[in-house]
Design goal:
The protein contains ten helices and eleven strands. By secondary structure, the protein is of the alpha+beta class. A five-stranded antiparallel sheet has the order 10-9-8-7-11, with helices on one face. Strands 1-2 form a two-stranded antiparallel sheet. β1 and β2 form a beta hairpin. The radius of gyration is 27 Å and the shape is globular.
């Protein structure tokens, strides 16, 4: 069992990431010693030194993103001016108000400062305090895996054509000798490194775009809804934190990766104030409550992510999100706020005095909408 600071590492995400980093680093170093030995040329020495620098920077920023953490809002936090509380949302879990740009993470169990998303690979949120370290981790990982892909590809080519070089080479080419197991592991690590370049490179692109726009992943969704809910003749919503790409970069990226500001008060664009975005959130929440529909559960649901008994349409069309699935029992009442063709998202109404909120997805066939003035019985289902 893990205790204290090591508890953050005892999760499949960090353990898998560390395994990938170490596997690629070990195999690349092993092949480099044969393909371009660092002891025989300046080029080989530079190649190895640059790769180990990439590997060290990747590992350092990865661990920093985990243990630095995103920065959390103090429990029962309130604004300095009591009248400003009317512009803020209240967090029932933390028993306090949410500061501008702060959101509650159900996995961390706390309100996170400038929350971007919860990343399973670092088993932590990406937020105000570790955004720079997380972005640096992605950047150095892509650089290191790009170099590893070249080294492993060339080494694999030399190893597969070793006999040709022995008979037809000029005798100066370095020979790469790989056993069967080493050859398999080399191919495996080559696939890992190429996969990291593609997948992590895409994630790095989205993070850089987020930094340049000074707009987190959650705020992307808020701004999109802000534009969508306005009529063509209404004034356009102005995102308050976009200060120009250069100033936006300076808020996150610097040589020390230290966060700028306290994570609560932010510089805003002209014509905006500290609560421009929070007021927009309140209006969106109000509209969301107006759209809420009440459903009653007619079939039990275990909360399984693979609901085989609910039909192949439900099974083959799951919501592409890591949000939870909630177990249901016949007779439960659900307040539904989001609809998919085969799934619904809602919050269970607790009638037993339990204060913990239960929200998540469940199959649409498990519930029917309650219409005012109408009742439901088993005969209705048969019809």
């Amino acid at each position: 069992m893990c205790f204290g600071p090591l508890k953050k590492l005892c999760h499949w995400g960090p353990l898998a990431a560390l395994a990938i980093i170490k596997s690629i680093s070990f195999m690349t170093a092993y092949c480099s010693n044969m393909w371009w030995p660092p002891t025989e040329s300046v080029g080989g020495l530079l190649n190895s030194a640059i790769f180990f620098a990439f590997s060290a920077l990747t590992l350092y920023n990865f661990m920093s993103a985990i243990f630095e953490g995103p920065g959390y809002l103090p429990t029962q936090w309130k604004p300095a001016q009591p009248e400003d509380a009317t512009y803020l949302q209240y967090c029932n879990t933390c028993q306090g108000y949410k500061a501008p740009r702060a959101h509650h993470c159900r996995k961390c169990g706390q309100c996170v400062l400038k929350m971007d998303h919860h990343c399973p690979w670092i088993n932590n949120c990406v937020g105000h305090c570790n955004h720079a370290h997380f972005t640096a981790f992605l950047f150095w990982a892509v650089c290191g895996c790009l170099q590893a892909s070249v080294v492993l590809s060339c080494s694999l080519y030399r190893a597969l054509n070793r006999v040709w070089y022995i008979y037809y080479g000029n005798g100066t080419e370095p020979l790469v000798v790989l056993s069967v197991y080493a050859l398999i592991f080399c191919v495996f690590c080559l696939g890992l490194s190429v996969g990291v370049v593609l997948a992590v490179g895409m994630l790095l692109y989205f993070q850089l775009r987020s930094i340049i726009r000074n707009q987190t992943g959650i705020e992307d969704w808020i701004v999109e809804k802000a534009h969508h809910r306005r009529d063509p003749g209404d004034p356009k919503f102005v995102y308050p934190y976009n200060l120009g790409w250069m100033n936006n970069l300076k808020q996150v990226l610097n040589w020390t990766c230290d966060p700028v500001g306290d994570g609560i008060t932010w510089p805003v664009a002209q014509g905006c104030d500290q609560y421009t975005l929070t007021r927009e959130q309140q209006q969106q929440k109000c509209e969301k409550r107006q759209r809420t529909r009440m459903y009653t559960v007619v079939e039990n649901y275990s909360g399984s992510w693979v609901p085989i008994t609910k039909g192949w349409r439900v099974l083959c069309h799951p919501p592409f999100t890591d949000e939870p699935r909630i177990p249901l029992q016949k007779g439960n009442t659900i307040l539904v706020t989001r609809w998919r063709r085969h799934w619904l998202f809602g919050e269970k109404i607790q009638n037993d005095g339990i204060k913990k909120r239960e929200r998540g997805w469940f199959p649409r066939p498990c519930a029917v909408e309650l219409v005012e003035g109408a009742s439901y019985n088993e005969e209705d289902k048969k019809k």
